[in-house]
Amino acid sequence: VDVPTEDDNNDGGGADGTSMLLAADNGSPTFDRNFNPYSPGKRTTTTLIYEPLFVTNTLDGTETPFLASEKEQPDPATVIFTIREDVTWSDGEEFTPDDVVFTFDLLKEFPALDTNGVWALIESIEVDGQDVVIHLTGDNVPAAAIIQKTIIVPEHLWADVEDPTTFTNEDPVGTGPYALGEFTPNEYTLERNEDYWQVENVAAQELILPASNTQLDVVNNGYDWAYAFMSDVENTWVAAAEGNTFWFPPGGTIALFPNLTMAPFDNPEFRLGLSAALDRERIAEVAEEGYVDAAGMSGLLLPNQEAFLNPDLPDGGAVAQDVDAAVSHFEAAGYTMSGDQLVDSAGTPLALTLTTPNGWTDWLRGATEVQTQLAAVGIEVTLNQPQPAAYQQELQNGNFQLSMGSFGGTGSIYEDYNRLLSSEFLQPVGTTTTANFQRYSDPDTDALLAELRVTLDEDRQLEIAYELQTVMFEQAPVISMFYGGLWGLFSEANFTGWPSAEDPYASPATWDANPLLVLTNIEAAG
Amino acid sequence: MRYVLRKIGLLLLTLWAAVTLNFFLPRMMPGSPTDAAIAKLAQNGPVSPATRAAIEAQLGVPTGNIWDQYVTYLGNMLTLDFGVSYTFFPQSVSDLVLTALPWTLVMVGVVTIVAFVLGTLLGVLAAWKRGTFLDSLPTLTGTFTSAFPYFWTALLLLFFLGYVLQWFPTSGAYSARATPNLSLEFIADAAYHAVLPAVTILITSLGGWILGMRNTMINTLGDDYVTFAEANGLQPKAVALKYAARNAILPNLTGFGLALGGVVGGSLLVERVFNYPGVGYLLYNAVTNQDFPLMQALFLMITVSVLVANFIVDVLYGYLDPRTRR
Amino acid sequence: MTEKEATARGEAPQPTQPSPSGRQNANDAVDGGGRVAQVAAPASPFTVLGRAAGTIWSVPKARVGLILLAVFLLAAVFAPLLAPYAPTDNSFGRAEGGSAAHPLGTTTAGEDVLSQLIYGSRVSVLVGFVAGFGATLIAVLLGMSWGYTRGFAADVINFFVNLFLVIPGLPLMIVLAAYLQGGGLAMIIFVVVITGWAWGARVLRSQTQSLRSRDFITAAQFSGESSFRIVFREILPNMTSLITGSFFGAATAAILAESGLSFLGLGNTAMVSWGSMLFWAQNSNAILTGQWVLLFAPGLCIALLATSLTLINFGVDGLSNPRLREGKGR
Amino acid sequence: MTLLDVQDLSIVYEPRGAEPVTAVRGATFSLEQGEFIGLVGESGSGKSTLGFALTGLAKAPARISSGRITFDGTDIAHLDGEDLRRQRRGGFAMVLQSGMNALNPVRTIGNHFADIFAAHEHVPRARRRERAVELVEKVKLPASVLDRYPGELSGGMRQRVAIALAMSLDPRLLVFDEPTTALDVLVQRAVMGTIIELQREENFTAILVSHDLGVVLESTARVLVMHEGVIVEDGPAAQILQDPQDDYTKMLLSHYADPRAEVVELPGLRVAGSQISTTGEPPAAIGTDAAPSGGAKARTGRTREAVVLEGVGKVYPPPRRGEDPVVAVDDVSFTIEPGDALALVGASGSGKSTIAKLITGVERPTAGTVRLGGTDVGSLRRGGLRRLRRDVQMVFQDPYSALNPLHSVEYALMRPVVNFGGLRGLQARRRVLELLDIVGLAPVEQFAAKLPHQLSGGQRQRVVIARALACDPQVIIADEPVSMLDVSLRAGVLALIEGLREQWGVSLLFITHDLLSARLVTDKILVLNRGRVVERGETAQVLRFPEDAYTVELLDAVPQPGRAAD
Ligand SMILES: Nc1ncnc2c1ncn2[C@@H]1O[C@H](COP(=O)(O)OP(=O)(O)OP(=O)(O)O)[C@@H](O)[C@H]1O
Ligand SMILES: Nc1ncnc2c1ncn2[C@@H]1O[C@H](COP(=O)(O)OP(=O)(O)OP(=O)(O)O)[C@@H](O)[C@H]1O
Ligand SMILES: [Mg+2]
Ligand SMILES: [Mg+2]
Prior knowledge:
The complex is a heterotetramer.
Chain B: H1 2-28, H2 33-42, H3 49-59, H4 66-78, H5 93-128, H6 133-145, H7 150-164, H8 184-221, H9 224-231, H10 236-263, H11 268-273, H12 279-288, H13 292-320
Helix pairs in contact in B: 1-13, 2-3, 5-6, 5-8, 5-10, 5-13, 6-8, 7-8, 8-10, 9-10, 10-13, 12-13
Chain C: H1 3-8, H2 45-58, H3 60-77, H4 79-82, H5 113-148, H6 152-166, H7 169-179, H8 184-196, H9 198-212, H10 215-222, H11 227-235, H12 240-263, H13 274-283, H14 292-320
Chain D: E1 2-13, E2 21-32, E3 36-40, H1 47-54, E4 62-71, E5 74-75, H2 81-87, E6 92-95, H3 109-120, H4 128-138, H5 155-167, E7 173-177, H6 185-202, E8 205-210, H7 213-219, E9 222-227, E10 230-236, H8 237-242, H9 247-254, E11 263-266, E12 269-272, E13 275-277, E14 307-316, E15 326-336, E16 341-345, H10 352-359, E17 367-372, E18 375-376, H11 382-391, E19 392-395, H12 409-421, H13 425-438, H14 444-448, H15 457-469, E20 475-479, H16 487-504, E21 507-512, H17 515-521, E22 524-529, E23 532-538, H18 539-544, H19 549-556
Helix pairs in contact in D: 4-5, 5-6, 12-13, 12-15, 15-16
The structure holds adenosine-5'-triphosphate (2 copies) and magnesium ion (2 copies).
């Protein structure tokens, strides 16, 4: 019996230059055939089979039209998408604005599908020729960015689906660049949709997605694109094959979330003291093996969002370790150094608990380094490592003193700051909230966010962004430390034009709509 | 009759308690299935506040009075209605279990049996040849290998035989493009993939059987019927097997029963290291994702099968040991 | 825990547990040919212990085990003196190979592997002994009262033991570990104890049952002794070797369990133990970076420590059952 | 023709981690074809060891350190492996001491025979079943046993099977190692009969190993006496009986007596008619203390009460489903007046121990009442039982298992003193020493510190008796208190019991199947058969002139040396 080995199957990855081996979808350990784009258990590549109206580059917020060719916001409460013509579903049916409306109606009927919460933003929706006009519940400029992410499904097939929440959509029909090829529990393929409206931009004829993508597999099996944190990437991935490259841009900010409902964290001076006490370079180095940079206090992802950076912030928001400054901040907050301990007015040494999810090793290393550094300013930090689900719960319920957390990275300035600072998410400790976990509340900031929500004036938007950065810098509602990397591993052997620091047109993420950007931009090598 | 009724009563009580524990223990874990799902999403980047509500609505995580939930749960268990998995939404738990079960049953089951048979034989040999090389070799090797952590053995095999020498595939239960079927070719492929996980389990579990059998066999070797058989000039082989080993194996059967019952639980660490799509991996997924329905079904299955296996061993015991018969 | 422990009570019989048939060989000084009174000097508890130690020592396998264990114990106790650096000192180069400064190289986080290995012995030894002790204690208390009492109380204990025998150990550990999040070493010990006592209880029960039918137990009743005293003064001392055996068995299981939980990332990953070293090694691709020492050394240490306990058990077995004393058969 | 010739045979046990023991020293003797000899000696004298060596079964840690065993011209002492195995057919065979356990519990009897036939291939396949039937019939068993498992047979049947199995080898030398010790007196008798008959028919050479001089003298023509590994006497049975040469043999013989005799005499004890008198030196302590004369007054002044059983019955639930309940005791009535000594005799399973359990409150009667004075024993609960035990104490059959091997003599005696006597500290200790003195274990201080394994069997039994006396009981139940002791120790213990009873006025229920012991220490007797009393009366009267057929049968089973010579 001729038993094929792993390699037999996998090195097809581009021998002819048009087939791509992709580590984008992990079976656990095998694949379920679920291509329902709204299902949490969907195959990751469902977003290559279906398309949204627009795709946002989460790194800098740049938007690329997909199923909509244009959008317009005549007033802050209305969004008009002009739907692309000459698009067909992969079964040959024509794609129409009615499909778009059908999709939104579907989400309204089944809130479980509405993972982006669009119906919290939309009042009504109507078709006007090739346009889809959306009336919002109020003035809301950033709403468009959320609404346009909605994945559009074909009315002619989905209208008959009885329960779309449990529908597994085994034979997906979409408008996207790829259609499902062969599906087996250990591996499946996507074939290029030759009728795709921009088929000329799609270089890879076939995508191969194995279920097992251990780091060992990734290094050995000649992947073209993988998303994985690789320890010692130069000696592993890069050394493994000619043409292997990597790009680890920041995808979010890892920060200390202080529980602002309790002392001493309710005192900004104390938070600033913590901020000054940290050597962020060292933390970033320890946590992510030096593959990411330290984060400043502006709340922006740099260099991605450089364009929005408030030029008035000292050092571009970066805060260097300054123990003396830290001590004076602490003093302002009522804490003094006594020997090598930081004590309150009653002389009680300060002891804090830092929560970090168990098993998230980079965070843990960062947290351990924070522990060490805070010990140097006389604060005793105990690590609390709940399991991820419990961590999530503690974070949401405000059940922590100091917690590791992340924010940002949606590509939308408004979204990033709103989730972090808006009191609309404010809940008492013990009640679940979905954002603003540190429970920050400031009327001025709320006003800024409200204005940012309604203004169409781009200059004003930028001004508000500056002001929000100042709030972040001066109030320190969270203490940013380092960037969470996006761990893109690429091979130039078969395809070129991968996103990179020089050409950051997309993030290296293999999920959501991002691969649409990547796969319509790369070119066959040679 | 009263005895049997009592025994059955106790069995059912144990089952009920295990099932109840299955219900309450996971729910004591901090965090909900939704939290687990969000925590998983959060590893890839920011999660939109709307997602939580959507996931909650979609999974249909039960809320409300825990006692009502418990009663419903008991009813479901009785009717073998295990519901839908949270982790693998919207797959039904029964489907998931039925897909994973054959892999585990065949791979872990076969190894368990092989380990028992081989270990027992080696134990017999060691006891019979006590104090010689044929004793110390299996005994010492067994002592050492049974002290290996499962996952470590798995990693070493993976590294040397899979990665360095590339003799065996390093993950999965069959080749990438294969779809499970019953063709010879597929079976050969599956067997090839099962080698490393199977060898791992074999290496680490063999020692226990060797030592156990050796100990009991040394005891029976001193029994009078063995001496008498020798005095009657039976061939050494007959004395060793039909007299000493035949009696020594009985106490070890209990352990074998538990082991066989445990087979349906798979071999969590090994399956995880080798990405083997068996029940152990499923169990790992269930437990780490707080997938109550899946966890409950698996725990129930394991509990029942251990109980049943024990029962079968009891019956078998009666057959093998006439003293308990009549 | 690893599955080994899950299975210690499940998949495989523990090598060190005596057969459940409950042979009545415990410690009876008048066993076998001992009918003939051997008049020796009066024995104090110390000489009894001394003799036991002597018997264990006289078995070569057990001797090797004791020496091995002593090495690990010394490493654990004197870790600060023996280790060249602090185990969490991450100020060295990343993923270095062996050198004079770092004989076993450094981790990807820049910690000295040798120092971690030496400090790691503390956790394993501590977990092994404390959890082994805890599990044995519960097994003794429950197993003996189960064996001695009849009727309802015995049924209740029987029920609990059965329950803990049928529930799959490793998943239960994971669930418990998640519940007792962040408890560190104490949590691990607790979890291992909770899931590890049942088998021992069963073995001790059958031994208690066979002892309780001995004349000297009836005689104690005729001497007006309370049940409590009978169990703990008359029966218990006669089971020392069995209990010692259970202890070493449970300790072995505990060591493997700790490593398994740590490997799954359910222990305290910030604490340096052999299990967490393996976790980090796996996590930072030791295989890929050629740092196979990271993977090999901690596992070997676990295996050796666990082996040492099993080896000692060869000697303990001989204590309670003269037939098992090492020697030539035929 | 000389079949077996043993020259200067020595055997040592060399256990690991312990001192070597020379179990047989320089044994020299030879056996003629067809001879039937006895090998006697006390426990541990090396009889079994010698028997094993003669049949090529000596194995580690035993080692033949010197000498030769010539069987039919070949030296088998250093034969092993396949050569030895071949010799076993038509050569030498052995029936083990614990013949009860000599059968593989998981193989049918038929398979045992089949295994032997297969091993030696001396019986053609087709004839094997037939031959097996022949063999079991020879030992007076029905052919149907061939399909049964050992567990389904009684001890006597198993012992016969073992003999038949040994016979299936057509041995020329057959060693019977205590073939009847574990058996009931009646069964014992029957098995011995079978052995003797077989030997006569088949005319093989036989060695009967036993510690029971009576049995040996009764059945064999020549006797070897072993003492501490040395063969101290070798001669015809009749001669040894009449004129023992060795001191040890003399001692053995002096402890043998016929319970039916008019006067029964043992060193230290002499019983004539119903009268008992102490001859020679009384046990050290007895008589030195101020003995209460009336006998009805306890040392502590408590009034002695009678044990009264009225129509007592005990039915155990059926051991297995579908079987009949076990009637262990059926309508038994008797009274033990204060100071009385009552013997309870009967074959195994006749319900003797059950009655003991009923009197001590360990079991409750299913019919009738058991009373101690005014107390209804059957209705007592925990506390009441504890109080009862102050009055009713037990002397156990096996002194080896009645003492916790880990506790010193002092501890064992201290417990009842503390629990019942309410004494503490020095007082308690003084009482312990006093007790030791009473049972004649002097120097008391030294004995108090010893652990059981440092005592001889007789000394242990004395400790057990002392413990029973510790709380100054009214009634002592002695369940076969000497059956596990060597003859040499037996008399001493019996004398002690007898003396104590006389002196302290305790009532004694003496349970035994040994009629000689019953004769020696009691004045009344009760014969039990299947739970029912079949005969009662004065001990001497009943034993000398039995009326019930069962009693006659029991008495018949008592070996009568010289009977074989008839
Ligand atoms: N396996 C052994 N190891 C060490 N010593 C032994 C062993 N077996 C017997 N002995 C010793 O050898 C001596 C003789 O034992 P043996 O069994 O031959 O006595 P016996 O006369 O048959 O006694 P019994 O009447 O109790 O059967 C005793 O002192 C005994 O303690
Ligand atoms: N606990 C019990 N359950 C059931 N049957 C029992 C129990 N104890 C004793 N018997 C039965 O009761 C009968 C009498 O037993 P008992 O022990 O009183 O006999 P015994 O005269 O003391 O015999 P031995 O001389 O062998 O000691 C036997 O048939 C025995 O099998
Ligand atoms: Mg003997
Ligand atoms: Mg009895």
